[in-house]
Write a structure and sequence with these properties.
Order of helices and strands: HHEHEHEHEHHHHHHHHH
Number of strands: 4
Strand order of the largest sheet: 2-1-3-4
Radius of gyration: 28 Å
Helix content: 55-70%
Structural class: mainly alpha
Number of helices: 14
Largest sheet: 4 strands, mixed
Distance between the termini: 28 Å
Amino acid sequence: MLGTFFRPLLAVFKKDFIIWLRNPLSMVASLVPILAILVIQGIGSGGGAGQAVGRNPVALVTLDQGSKGMQMRQILYQSHVFRLTDATPQQAKALMKDLQVVASIRIPADFTQRIEAHESTPLEVTINNLNLDFTDDIRRAVPDAITQFYQAQGSSSPLKVTLHEQDLRKQDIQLFQYSFLPLLVLLLISSSLVTNSIAAAREWERSTIKELLLSPVGRLVLITGKVLAGFTGTLLLGLLVFALSVWQGWMLPPSGVYLGTCLLIMALIALLGTGLGVALGAMVQRIQPVTSTSVITAFFLFFLTGGIGVLAFEPIVLQNIAAFDPLYSGVHALQIAIFYQSSDQLGRDVLILCLSAFAALGLGALALRRSLTS
């Protein structure tokens, strides 16, 4: 009896999986919008995975070659807040005029002399207030660098400053890395929705569903084979993108048991999208409308979780809605495992994803069964 079940199951699985490989439409439909967001994120985060959004281009004019002037220059470089370009006063003006820098900082020629005499001396900061984000970044960063300068003076400083930083997390996460991880979740849910909805709708649009119904194969075998084919294709695509992103440095590599956590969460998200995709395909039964519907559904679910932002900073209404979106649990579980090497609230996230995935699979199986019966 096991042979009569698994042998046709394998045949249905193999047929659907090969069709998925030979029809790149589903991959393109799910990948193109995500790649567009990825490019926008790369540009918005400063041009790559290694830069923070606050690192604005700034021209640095150092007129004082004394010990304090050079120390101030070194602190500005070590602050990791600016992308500094050494320039003369004339070069700084030209860079500002050509919009190649958003600000210029000038260390005056008598900086060392006045500091040693315990006299106040200004750092001249010129800002192009074209963009409020850039302007606020510079306004916050310059006083912070000055504070670090006074701390470095030790007991000789006229201002006694002590800085102590205690990080809640063990490591800093680049903006691009933080933004890329939710896109992996979007890829999984979008690919599984699009792939399975197109695969199911294709059977009706091309009338191949009649051949399947006339074959001596039970409907449970047909449904299970189709679900497994779509799930496998989606998970393999997700694993490929996951490995590529780690290799390119777009995402931090998980270690130890947390690698298993990531694989589990990715598999549950793929199952969730598979069930929803089968349900959509069985109900719509046309490739073109089901493709657009599945993409919109995937993005709707994704942006309800806060998308690529930090949900805690979003409006309360969106936070309350996101509590009912299972993708939020997927994003949270992956962030905690990859970024912070933690299993905080993992049980809750896995439970929500399991219940949602099985509910979606049940909905997909029910929709497909009713469509086959009718």
